[in-house]
Structure formats: structure tokens, C-alpha cells
Amino acid sequence: MLHVVLVGCGAMSKTWLEAARQSPEIRIAGLVDLDADRARQRAREYDLAGAAIGTDLDVILDQTKADAVFDVVVPAARGEVANLAFAHHCHLLTEKPLADSPANARAIVDAARRAGRVHAVVQNRRYVANVRRIRRFLDSGAIGAPTSIHADFFVAPHFGGFREEMRHVLLLDMAIHTFDAARYMVNGEPADVYCQEWEPANSWYRQGSSASATFGLGRNRMFTYRGSWCADGFRTSWEGSWRIVGERGSLIWDGHDEVKAEVVLPEREGLIDKVGPVTVPPLDPSDRIGGHLGVIADFVQAVETGTEPETRGSDNIKSLAMVFAAIQSAETGRRVNIASQEG
């Protein structure tokens, strides 16, 4: 049984607490928030009568002797939470993004390494069934090695609040999900990026609601991203829509349930090689899925077995670096080396 203190009881904490109560290995020992009444409200909502409540994480960690911290605070506060967690010998699972800057991300990753604690990020799109299926299918070589990866993300949510006022809203708030999924599906190492942002006339955001980026993913592979937070009509799923081109064929995913692939056949018809369908196998029983619940289960297993979770901070920092490099490229109008953003 892992005794956990959750810090940050805003709206996102509901998703975490819902997943945690489905995890028999987790006991929420404490809830921390700057607003103690909000923490008490979450305790009532999720039947956590025995949980310690407070506004000071240091005090609650002393009181509960917790094994781990669930960090659901704003990104700017992640460093302070991480340092307190590691000072109390706690493992740490944090909401995305890992940090609010490349330097702060590296500082947290380094602190986890020095403390010898498990540190992971809730990069929950990796735990989508079709993302797992696609990675396994591509690894099989059925369409040859991937050469080009293309993702579109067009959704038009009216959030209200801070998102509509923040800068680089699409890249900072959402794009990391797509970037991380691309990196995972083709086992890519991000190298560089050229990115543009703009604000369409129909936008209700302050800045950065639309973006286009082209990444190098190593081994002569390119990943293109086109996205918008204000594109009404024909919206994609929250997972985006995908086309992955391989040496001998292509795969497409609509971001929902439809995943299809075609492979080149030996015959040619006029100028064009004939192609035929190839089956994308169903989910393998060993594939880990479940969104937040899947990430939490992976985290618990890592703590119990002394292994590293898939979304460990030392790996996730590469996806975060893609975000910061894209922002730098958009601001400067230049292609940016991504390794420079990893700290």
C-alpha cells in the first residue's frame, strides 16, 4: 500500500482522485491546497474522511509520513513541491508539464536522481489503446521503417479563464500530448524544430492559438504538426488525426477507433505502385492503457519493484523540450536545436 499526499486540489485533482480510488495500491493520506476549504471539499467528494488536510505540504508530509506525492499544482510551483517531496524521501508523480522552463525541468530531474526517488509525469496519451497498437505495429516492420509522421489537431474549446489570456496557449497547454505521442510511436529522438504561431481573425484567445511545426526526429525522419484551438467545423479528436508514412506503406488513424494501413504490392498500375490493406493487430494483453489510471499503475509498480516508469521525468523532459524549442522558434523565426532545451 502506497500512502500518498496529493497537493493542488483544483479541477484537475478530480481526475487524479477518481483514478486513485480505482487503485487498491493507493491510499490518499493527505490533501494540500492553498485553500483549505477546497481540500476539505475534495475529501468529502471522494470519501477521504481520514485524510490529513492542510495548506502546508511540509507539515502534512511530516504528519502523514507519506511514501509519495501527487503534484497537481500550477507548473511554476513544481520545483518547490519536488524539493519538499524528495526532502521527505517521497516518490513523486506530477501533472504535465514537468516544469515551466527548461532549467526548472532539469533541476527537478536532477533532484530526483540525487534523491534516488521515482519521478514520473502524467503523460497520459501514451496510455491510449491505439497509440499502443500503432507503436507495436510499426515496430513489427509491416510498412517498413517510418520516414514521415504527420499530425493534425483542430479543436475549438471555449475554456474561459486563464487559457484565453496566456501566451503560446496551444503549444504550452496541449501540444505536448501530440509531441510525446509522435516521439513514442516511432521511437524518435527530437533533434530540431521550425515553428510558426499566429492568431486568426476568428480567435478568442490572446496569443498562440494556432501553430505549425516541423520537427526532425533523428534517422532522417520528420514530424509535422498542424494545430488550432479555434478551428470550428470538422474538428479532430483530442488525440488528433495521424498519417505515418513508412518505407513500404502508410498508416492512418482518425484519432478515434479507426486505424488502417496499406502496404506496397509488387505490381504497378501506370505511374503508381499498387497497394493492399494490411491488418493492424488488436491491443496486446501486455499493453498498458487507462489514461491517468494507467500512469498511476505504472508509477506504483516502479516504486514497488525499483524499476523506472515509462513516463519518468528523465525521458519526459525530451517531450517538454520539444515544446520550449517550438516556442523559441516561433519567437525568433529560426530553426532551433532541441537538445539545448533539455537543460
UniProtKB/TrEMBL annotation:
Pfam families: GFO_IDH_MocA, GFO_IDH_MocA_C3. Gene3D superfamilies: Dihydrodipicolinate Reductase, domain 2, NAD(P)-binding Rossmann-like Domain. Residues 131-251 form the GFO/IDH/MocA-like oxidoreductase domain. This is Putative dehydrogenase. InterPro entries: Gfo/Idh/MocA-like_OxRdtase_N (IPR000683), Gfo/Idh/MocA_oxidoreduct (IPR051317), GFO_IDH_MocA-like_dom (IPR055170), NAD(P)-bd_dom_sf (IPR036291). Residues 3-121 form the Gfo/Idh/MocA-like oxidoreductase N-terminal domain. One of its GO terms (molecular function) is nucleotide binding.
